[in-house]
Design brief:
The structure is a single chain. The chain is α/β, with parallel strands linked by helices. Helices cover 50% and strands 14% of the residues. The chain has 16 helices and ten strands. It is globular, with a radius of gyration of 22 Å.
Length: 381
Amino acid sequence: MIAVIPCYNESETTTTLDSLLNCTAPNAAFKVIVVVNQSEITSEEVTQRNLQTISELKEWKVNHPDFPLEILEELSLPKKHAGVGLARKIGMDEAVHLFHQSQTDGIIVALDSDCVVDKNYLQEIEAHFNQNPNTPGCSIRYAHPIQGENENINIGIIQYELHLRYYNQALKWAGFPFAFHTVGSSMAVRSSAYQKQGGMNKRKAGEDFYFLQKIIELGGFTELNTTCVIPSPRISDRVPFGTGKAIGDFIESKELTYYTYQFETFRLLAEIPAWLKQLFEGNKKIHSNSKAQEFLDSIQFENKVEEIKNNTSSFSKFEKRFYTFFNAFTVLKFTHFMRDHGLPNRSVIEEAKLLLRTVSKPKEEANLSELLTYYRQLDRE
């Protein structure tokens, strides 16, 4: 098992290492690869911070000689590709190389350099893959700290995490098979699955979402809920979207309300999985909502379905190929289309409560933190 940690302009990487050091050791061999990275055009200030980080990591390694730490210094990456995706790719590709040397189909764990983990983190990841020998990868439970010193950040991170969990639960309710969290600091994959799906991409943001969708498409993807990653809720401008950017925008707006997709969007989405049997039998379907139908027309839905039907001999194969076409990217495009065509975003608190009422699990009187706690429980069921 190898944990890969990208590191750019960080000041707390050794805190993450301390957390891993405190973990109960797994039975299998374990290693950590930290990829200190930057572009060839990085500012002098960030360069000095990265050099300081390298110095701190080397000192930490000297002070913990038995801990299997490898430090990769990637300080002049091409500006076109430099970013978190490329950094993860460098570290994960190195993990594959090491597994090849030992002739092992090992586990590649993705973590970030602003996270801490539960004491049983390594042990539970190892046990999960042993108990699920056919799973290509898993999403690991995460929970942001919500009781920091800055109350506005607390309010922001609770609503942002609620947005992530609401979206995931809404997809499950709508009947989509790829409803999994795709958080870069909370995932693990087999080396063989990583290689089969072409490895990590070089995206500067959203690399985790795009990468995990490829792994999920293999089938048998799982969730690991018996341990937890605690990511930082800090403000960050390292990537154009994600937790740090969302919290920064939230604080800057001074509105203290986080907005998400209307639940009505998922009601409209839910019609599509319900069509599958009829589509396989050759029936054409028109969406009840004209704007939703407009979106389907824009992606040539009818032609694509006909093509899939003509190239599959059973419903199970049709269903699998359908969701390769109408995948998580398409669903996200649908939510954005509906947001821009009559269903503007609304308060995440109200939409999250509406979903709960729909599934007969109302929490009308719950305050913000209680609502998040309840959604965290739902994600573990």
